[in-house]
Amino acid sequence: MAFVNEISPEEREGLSNLYSKISSERSRRILHVNSEVRKSLRDFFIGEGFYELSPVILGPVTDPLNHPVSDASINYYGHKYGLTQSMIFHKQIALLSYEKLFIFSPNVRLEPLDRQATGRHLAEFSQLDVEVRDFSKDDAISLAERMYCFVIEQVRKSCAEDLEFFGRALSVPHIPFRRYDYSLAKERYGEEFEASLSENHKDPFFIENVALLDREFYDREMEERPGILSDMDMVYPEGFGEALSGGEREYQLERIIDRIKKKGQTFEQFKYYLEVARMGLPRSAGFGIGIERLVRYVLGLRNIEDATLFPKVIGKFSL
Ligand code: AMP
Ligand code: MG
Predict the structure, then answer these.
(1) Which atom of ligand 1 is nearest to the CA of 290?
(2) 85 CB within 6 A, ligand 1
(3) What is the pTM of this model?
(4) Does residue 314 fall inside a structural domain?
(5) Does 319 map to a domain?
(6) How many structural domains are present in the chain?
(7) Residue 108: which CATH number?
(8) Nearest to 241 by CA among 201, 204, 198, 186
């Protein structure tokens, strides 16, 4: 192969590790669980009358996120397109067509190196993104609770041998899940409240009503509690941390503009979204759940890298 450039020792080692990993029984079982988790999620949403939307992988506007990531954009015939960081704006717009949507959405987030050791961040992952017209935060929480219980019930049936192989016993929690108010939890348990609550729970729970500047501009500010958002995170127990984020959305142009200003972001970045918002967006709520994190939790895996066959590991060469 004289015509190809040399593969570096780091790249060769990466490929060789991947080869042994993929050929193992452990890997086959994880793949089975990953596949069954996706199937049960799809069955759940189709059963609830949702339509599945095709993912958008490239677009002129994407989720700004609430933390810095490296730029993943390209130029194509004079237009700048970015790789999707989440489909938040597209799913809001898609609700003009149908009222209940879900998407298995590949997200690329070129995360900073300090997230490599968290065990729950990849540079590419699958987000099951869900949005419903005229939904409230409470509706979204109730949907997430039912979804979670459905998936655990299904996986316990279809993956019993895999769960045994990983020594994992999962129970279906009671609905409603416990809820904590974001500001109160912070006051009571300190800055690391999410991690310590996660460590000390046996079942998933919600943290709701996040402070305005701690989230992206598109989550809706409460009328009755200015400075607080009508949104939430679901958190896995046993120290596995955040499972999903969601909430009600801003949909009126003036309020969206006000929130972009409060975040100190530029209108330029969101001009195409703002133009559509000017035409009118539906009122909605929804959430997004990371599939690899769910598989990691279901099997009790230490590292999210093991939850999928081709993980894009932060800062490392990955196939
Ligand atoms: P966010 O809207 O940023 O909270 O993302 C929605 C969900 O996607 C999170 O709750 C996680 O389950 C998942 N997620 C976010 N970032 C990552 C990442 N870098 N790697 C894997 N999963 C992620
Ligand atoms: Mg989040």
Answers:
(1) 12
(2) no
(3) 0.97
(4) no
(5) no
(6) 1
(7) 3.30.930.10
(8) 198
Q: Which domain holds residue 275?
A: 9-307
User: Which ligand 1 atom sits closest to the C-alpha of 88?
Assistant: 2
Protein residue with least CA distance to atom 1, ligand 1: 245
- Report the SS3 class of residue 99: coil
Nearest CA to ligand 1 atom 21: 121
What is the tens place of the pLDDT at every residue in 124-165?
Answer: 999 999 999 999 999 999 999 999 999 999 999 999 999 999
Q: Is ligand 1 within 6 A of the CB of residue 108? A: no
pLDDT tens column, 196-242: 999 999 999 999 999 999 999 999 999 999 999 999 999 999 999 99
201 lines ligand 1 (CB under 6 A): no
In this structure, are strands 51-52 and 100-108 parallel, antiparallel, or unpaired? parallel
- 24 by Cβ neighbours in 10 Å (0-12 / 13-18 / 19+) ranks as exposed
20: tokens are 């042994």
- Residue 202 φ then ψ, to 5°: -105, -15
Alpha carbon 150 to its chain centroid, in Å, reads 18
